[in-house]
Design brief:
Elements: H1 2-5, H2 10-21, H3 30-34, H4 37-46, H5 51-70, H6 79-91, H7 96-109, H8 113-122, H9 125-134, H10 139-153, H11 161-165, H12 167-177, H13 182-197, H14 203-219, H15 224-240, H16 242-249, H17 256-266, H18 271-284, H19 288-296, H20 299-309
GO molecular function: ATP binding; protein serine/threonine kinase activity
Protein name: Serine/threonine kinase-like domain-containing protein STKLD1
Enzyme class: transferase
Length: about 325
Amino acid sequence: EFMRACWDIEEVQAKGIQHLASFVKEKSAFPCLLGCTEVITLAMKTHIDSLALQVEGCTLLLEILSQALEQGVMMALDESVASCLLHTVRKHSENEEFLSMLCTLLMMASASEVAAENLREAGIIPDLLSILRRFLHNAEMCFSCCAVLWSLAVSENNADQAVLESAVPVTSAVLQEHLQNGVVAESACSALWALALQGCLTDSDYEPTAALLLDALRMNPERAVLVRNGCLALASLVRLSETAALAILLDPKGSGVELIQEEYHLHLDEPGVAEALCLLVNEMVQYDEVMLDMRSQKMEKLLSEIKLQFPFS
């Protein structure tokens, strides 16, 4: 109440945020802190030029969101909070260290469908793409932004087709830059999967994107989630075009079909991986020429193995 009453006095807001932060470790205070997000973001929005206050506010929001996720509480940040966070992103778009923290906050917030929708409606996608272009070298930021992109792109009521289409080359650039960083590559593969599902790729994207996803699988074979999402992304591409299916078969770095078989044997106990592989194979056999090639590479044998391994799935 004191912070609301003195909303225009920066020192009051700073002290208020610091005082609220002192309760973070007290479990009994958590339900009360959940109701403080609006007053914290109002302080940040009102005193947008104060970097110190932005950092303290952002740190506190991160703490509250972290605790909420740990306790299985889904925090749906409302439109005013989403708008405020976007305002902060734009004002401090050159400050890499602070922006990295802010992107982590956005990633955690976007786990809620309501919050993701509010961020999307606030128009955050172009800002995320701008951050990725400017800080392509920053693995932590790339991971967070791709995770937010995935959350926004999987939304069913997407009216941002043109904006999402512009995300394809940027997300591909992230994957290319961080192929050997499993965490970032996993996040980028997930974003590409969501973009492919939304039909955001053009004819010229199918072949290079398929090759890039195969590279991600080769570089990170042990990461089950990456393998699953990479295969789902490939399946979405193959559904759209035979070009993608042929790119998997004829990849100059080695047969994509052999790679699929190797990945399955690496993740024998992962039903999610097996399911994604089956979905990819199912899309590929829709094309006669591709099916003949897969048959020659003994894909039927692998499918029989999967059927035996998961008889009740």
